[in-house]
């Protein structure tokens, strides 16, 4: 357990001024996400040297990889939300138990989905249209999916640190993964001549070391605010249900993102072949890099909203949601402008060999159009994360389903095939659909917060009457 002073600093931060809490929580998360994206981009850059087929294979595996990462992040989101709500309600024993339940869930889920992914990978890739790239995809995918537990467990442990406001060590753990992966990639891919399989093994080894670091803090050094000793585990159906009410929708959201990527990849293959998938994969790496601040701010909103909801604090919930959106838009304007101005220079990072040089102009065009996606996302993602924080995971799922699986795919199809805009139409459709779906989510969140005002007031009146 931490010293009392440290406990109070962490807890007072997430229960105090929501603007300050969002800034303090989001910056380390941004650093963490930046590091993760850096090693994802490093994977793409190093693999790009193997040729367009290898890079396209990463593009086919990425949606499936997002699913397995989403398992850990989904369970982590459920734990983060529930632990934060218990902290807001000053019920620290149940907060401990919620963290332990999340770990148990991660073990069970990992075993089930490892089997599913390993047995179903070939037909899934065939349906996705992997074609000539399928062997590359299998070489990479079997290794990644075979060690699913590593990614799920890492996501849960990181979320537990975030739930109590300990962003510093959550960031350190992720930094270990990212830095190791960046170092090991060229060694495994080229020096050891392992090719695309080397990229997979570099990721596995790096993430394993990160888990060992977090496990040391939790179970050996034991200086977490929460006490995750096995003796504190007491099975409770309510905790399991409350965790899964956020975890399942959050995981399904990641599956939706993967389904979106699969459908977009299919459209790209139909419109221009597998080379278009390579172009889109490289471009979306940059878009995802620029989305890091939004994800960081959104993750902070999840914790702040959970604490505010648990404490029945209407003002903190309202202020936190609105401030996060304003902050997100400000950052996205800057990043979007950078993407447009330097699109050609960025494209060269993915076309530095003779095997991939022809991709540069197409990647630059894709980056310029998809830069608008960064502007279209803040109001939607902050609203979804707010709903996760207050335990309304289904609401967040509905927003994501509408935005990604329905509006983005429909508008991409319309713009590309019906309007005849070709590949730029797919990019523009993704942007426009994202903006429309995010707007619906934002309006829903504002309505929910307005209703919560009455609930919070009734709760306050009941406490006063009891005194």
From TrEMBL:
Q: Which UniProt keywords apply?
A: Cell membrane, Membrane, Transmembrane, Transmembrane helix, Transport
Q: Where are the transmembrane segments?
A: 21-42, 54-77, 98-120, 140-160, 172-192, 198-219, 255-280, 286-311, 323-343, 363-382, 394-420, 426-445
Matching entries from InterPro entries are given as: MATE_fam (IPR002528), MdtK-like (IPR048279), Membrane_Transporter-Flippase (IPR052031)
Please tell me one Gene Ontology term that the record gives under cellular component.
plasma membrane
- What coarse category fits the chief subcellular location reported for this protein? membrane
Q: How does it sit in the membrane?
A: Multi-pass membrane protein
Keyword Chloroplast among record annotations: no
Q: Name one GO molecular function term.
A: antiporter activity
In Swiss-Prot or TrEMBL terms, this protein is called: MatE efflux family protein
Q: Which organism is this entry from?
A: Methanobrevibacter olleyae
Taxon lineage: Archaea, Methanobacteriati, Methanobacteriota, Methanomada group, Methanobacteria
